[in-house]
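Much of what follows relies on a compact textual record of a protein's fold. An example makes this concrete, so a full record is given next.
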Amino acid sequence: MRLVIIAIVALIVIAVAYYFLTQQETSDLAQQAGQAVEQAVEEASDAAQEGADKVSSLVVDGVDLGKELGTGLDNLKTSLEGITDKASAEAALPKLEELKSQMEGWGKAVEQLPAEGKTALAGTISASLPTLESLAAKLDSIEGVGPVIKPTLDDILASLKQWSEASG
């Protein structure tokens, strides 16, 4: 009987020792995980702040050029993709002229952007410009389309190209 009691006490001591050892390892792991989470949160916060700085650097006189230009580029691409013949070119021309007019207004605001804003804007435009130029070249080869949209489209692409090369 005495041997059984000694065995039970020994098992209890082993179990308690095991418990405290695993708690220490768990605590160390939890601490490491906590530090990793803190670092990830700090990096995410820095990235968010950098993004916010870029966005705010594209606002001039209350106009968000990044948003306006992004919408304009999307509309331009959609309009160009919808042109298949002279009739559709004539139908798209008012939208292209409207965008050209908007861009003339944006030109003054682009000049007022801080250096980081001009760089961010140039990056946005540079990403879209090859696609737009390719669409313009394709449309120019369709009979009857070039004479309808080319003057307006050339002006739009010239402004975009100029802005894509602008840097602070």
Summary: The beta strands are 59-60, 63-64.
